[in-house]
Amino acid sequence: MQGGAVGKAFLTPFGVGNQASSVTALGTRGGVGQAIASRIPQIPFLTACATPDKPYPIIMGSMLVPESPVKYAPFEFTPLYAGILNTTAGTDPVVGGGYVEPLLLNTYSPGPQPTPASGVANVTATSAPYVVPLVQMVGISSSFAAQGTRPDTTTQAELTGAERLEYWNLLNYQGGSRLFADGGGADNTAITPLVQRGVRHIVCGVATIYPPNGTADQWAVYQWDVAGLFGAVPRDLNKRGLVSGVAIDIYNKAMQIFPESGYKELHAALAAAYKAGGSTAHRATYTVQDNANKGVKGGWEVDVLWVTNSQAAQWEGALPAETQQLLADARAGAPGLPAHLQELRQYPYISTFDADYTPELVTLLSQQASWQMLQSKSIIQQMMAAPPGPPAAAAGAAAAAPAAAAQPKAAKPRLRAR
What we know:
Layout: H1 2-11, E1 22-25, H2 32-39, E2 45-48, E3 59-65, E4 71-77, E5 82-84, E6 98-100, E7 120-125, H3 134-141, H4 145-149, H5 154-158, E8 163-168, E9 175-182, H6 184-187, H7 192-196, E10 201-206, H8 216-222, H9 224-228, E11 242-243, E12 246-247, H10 248-255, H11 261-275, E13 281-287, E14 301-308, H12 313-317, H13 321-332, H14 359-375, H15 377-385, H16 392-399, E15 412-417
Parallel strand pairs: 1-2, 7-15, 10-14
Antiparallel strand pairs: 3-4, 3-9, 4-5, 5-6, 8-9, 11-12, 13-14
Helix pairs in contact: 1-3
C-alpha cells in the first residue's frame, strides 16, 4: 500500500517507520505521553515534541464520503488526537463530531451506547483490528489515487485502493468501515487545519503546475486548490462543472476561508513577481470567513505568506552554465537528451502524481525552494518573532464549532481503549 512505500522512503531512514507502533507527544500539562506509554507498555510509541523547539505535526487526510455532495470529509491525525471536527452533510451514519486519541482510531463502535445526564460519557472501545501507525497515516495523506479517479459512488471509491479503517463518530458513537485517502480532497494546501486552530501567521508552500502568466481564472483551472480557499473557482472551469468530482458551487462553499477578492490580488502579485523573474511569493492579511465544513470560525485576521514554485529567471540565471544549458535543452526537447532528463522539460511545473523523480529534478527543486525561502527571509523572521498563540475568541470558537443543526447533540466523551 501507499504507506509502505512512503514509509520506506521517508520514515524508516529516520527510525520512525515502525509498522507496529502508535504516536504521542511530550510537553503536555498532564504528561499524556508518559502516562499512555506506561499504561500500555506492549505498544512502542513514536514521540513528537521531545524538545520545546520541535513543531506539533498535523497530518491531513480525507475520508471518502461518495454519498455526500462534498465527497471528501477533512480528517486530521496528530500525536495526541485524530478525527473529524465537524459533521459532514449527507452521510449515514453521521461522520464527524470531534477527535479521539490515536489508539482509538480504527476501533469498532462502542456499545452499549452511553446515556449521559451530565454531558460526560465514559466510552470503552474494543476489538481494534490493529493500531494505526504513523507510517500508515503518512501514506494515507499522500494516497492520490482518489484525487485522480474522482470517486462518485461507493463502488468507484472501492477501486481507488484507498486504506480502509474502522471509524465511529462522537455524536451517537455509530460508524463502520470507511475509506481514507489523500488530504487533497479536503484541502490540498493543508492550510485549513491551521486556520481552524486560530494560527495567526502561516507560511504556505504551493507546488504549482502552471505559471501565473494568464488571467486569474485561467490559473484557477490548474490551481483550483488555491482558488477554492477564496471561494473563487470559476463556474465555467470545465465542461463537467466539477472539481475532483465535486460540483463547483459546493466545492467553493466547502473550501472558502478567505474573502473572494483576495484571490485576484494573490494572482496579480504572483504574476508580477513571475514577470520580473523573481521568487513568486506574496504576503497578505485576510479576514477569516466562517466555514462549518472545516470547523473554522471567522471574524479575525490571519497573516499568510504564499510561496509558489514558478519559474524564476533570476535564480536560473545564477546557475552554472552547464545547468542552464541542461534546462534549455530539456525545454526545447533537444535530440539526444537522455530519457531520465526529459522530465525537466516542464521544470519547475512537475506533476505530484508521479511517484519517481530523478536526482537532477529533486536537486533543482530543492535548491530553488531554498533560494525562494531565502528571498523571504526577513518576512519569515518577522512572522516567527510575532507573539505566539491564537486570538482567544477565534481559538475558543473554532474548538467549539457546532455540528450541523439537524444532528444530535454530542456528549463530551471520556474515551479509553481496551
